[in-house]
Amino acid sequence: MSGGRRYEAISRTRTPPASSIPEQTAPSDLLVPIVFTGQGVCRVAVQEREQVYCFTADDPEQMIEAKDAQALLKTGLFQVGHLAGRR
User: Fold this and answer.
1) Domain of 34: which CATH number?
2) Owning domain of residue 74
3) What pLDDT digit, counting tens, does each position of 14-29 carry?
4) Which of 23, 26, 41, 78 is positioned for an S-S bond with 67, CB 3.0–4.6 A?
5) 55 domain-assigned
């Protein structure tokens, strides 16, 4: 039994506190094509990283980070995909 306690004590000292473990998120290098379907200009700011995306009706498509795509898609003003063949 004492061997089990010893292992438990060692594993506790080697495990970093939960606050220092980064959250699991989409990799920042994973990009998704997003198309703005609205009219005019749409600027979207991502506060956590001070990232700003700017979409216009004339230039509606951008490759954005996958972790940002989910929020944009929920607005109803964006969809996933490329414009090739749409015009």
Assistant:
1) 3.40.5
2) 23-87
3) 444 444 444 445 455 6
4) 26
5) yes
